[in-house]
Description:
two-stranded antiparallel ribbon; Putative membrane protein; 10 helices
Amino acid sequence: MTTTVKPPARAEWTVIALLIVLSVVPLAAGAFRLGDLATGAPVTADNARFAASPLPVVLHVLAAAPYCLLGAFQFSPTLRRRRPRWHRASGRLLVPLGLVAALSGVWMTLFYAIPAIDTGFLTVQRLVFGTAMALALVLGFVAARRREFAQHGAWMIRAYAIGMGAGTQVLTHLPWTLLVGEYDELSRALLMGAGWVVNIVVAEWVIHRTLRRPRSARRVPVRTPG
């Protein structure tokens, strides 16, 4: 008799919890920004661009928050297997949410009056990664329509990894802030870029480990008496 070893539920929920925790700081920052706009907070050099044109940042925050939180649950193979309708329904939400988050980020990079420390190399990175996220979502959607589910999963993981860059960037900035303090335009760009790069490297590792292995290697047969 042959049975299949299922991935441990505790490990899956640990991954989901870690992804949600990684989202906390950027989501809190977004909520704070929306609160400023909703309450008519005094206009400062830091928020003047948002006060002058609030729609892009409002769309960005309102799309990014559910994208990050709902997307975390897509990393549970058990949920995908046992709740296929839920997986498809949430996927239909995640694609437009991710596109709004990515494209509004690109729009803000192009048309907002960006602070000097965020210009130069960081501007290029934001445009590249924002465009890459949108492209990955489109390719993931197309792959799903073609029933190429391994490719679909790979592209959606890449898109989520880029979208979660803001969470990882908190971690890349923290050691520098504690050890060095202030950062200039170049160090700021490198620390921001490191967040995206770390996520992409992890995403490719996950893709290689879980999606590109032969199907027979994903299930470990266990021989039982009888």
